[in-house]
Amino acid sequence: MSANTASRSSRTPQKRQSLSPAVLQPCLSKEEINLLPIQAWEGPIVLVQDEAGLAAALEDLWQETVLGFDTETRPTFTKGKTCRPALIQLATAETVYLIQLTHIAFCDDIAALLSSPSVLKVGVAIHDDMKALARIHPFEADGVVDLAGMARARGIQAQGLRTLAANLMGFRISKSAQCSNWENRELTPQQIKYAATDAWVGRELYFRMLRLGGNSPKKRS
After folding, report:
1. How many domains, in total, are found in the chain?
2. What distance in Å separates the CA atoms of residue 84 and residue 215, rounded to the nearest whole number?
3. Average pLDDT by consecutive 10-residue portion of the chain (221 residues)?
4. Does 25 fall in a domain?
5. What is the pTM assigned to this prediction?
């Protein structure tokens, strides 16, 4: 799949998803979450695999004020060993971009976006993701909002992405591809869908929690 080609199996053309209003619920149990319907991102997904694709993606990403953010790393089952992030997911209002670090190096242009205070990057455990990226290419993250922190400020017990989605959005997101090999040069359709969904859900949760009120999120580096 080329750098600027949206995954055909992972989109419905030009159709925005309609979601129900945010309703604060008691924290659902694991069993209750498992009974919820699965939902995934169905809009355009762009795999960024070369410099031209990155330039086009960044041109769009810089137009946004809030981006859903996540990374994926190949799991390791050796004690004390960790792998480098292999994928960066960034969701706009219309498109999810998947930057494959197996194809293109983490560079100053990506770091500039992640360092910008004018473009919010929102996600769960996002500070850990930023630190892992900074070990590849040093930079100072800014404009970073942790969704778990937003949840705590609103008295919401659920703080993981899956549990927040279940409690605030009323659906379940699949985690079946979480432990797959993200260093594969060709991602599977399941991996693409999973990665895009996590970034999209993060962005939606940010706006849901804003509508619930409470303390304003603090941007941290």
Report:
1. 1
2. 34
3. 41 41 62 90 97 98 98 79 91 98 96 98 96 96 96 86 92 82 94 97 96 64 47
4. yes
5. 0.83
Beta bridge partners of 145: 122
What CATH number does residue 73 fall under? 3.30.420.10
CA distance 151 to 214: 9
The candidate with the shortest Cα–Cα distance to 120, out of 165, 90, 151, is 90
**Rounded to whole angstroms, how far apart are CA atoms 198 and 201?**
5
Instruction: For the chain, list the strands marked E by DSSP.
Output: 45-48, 66-73, 85-91, 96-100, 120-123, 144-146
In sequence order, what are the beta bridge partners of 88? 71, 99
Domain assignment of residue 18, yes or no: yes
* Cβ-contact 68, 200 below 8 angstroms: yes
Residue 67 lies in a domain: yes
Give the angle 106-144-62 at the CA atoms, nearest 5°: 60
77 in any annotated domain: yes
Residue 112 in tokens? 């500039």
pLDDT, position 179: 67
Instruction: Classify 50 as helix, strand or coil.
Output: coil
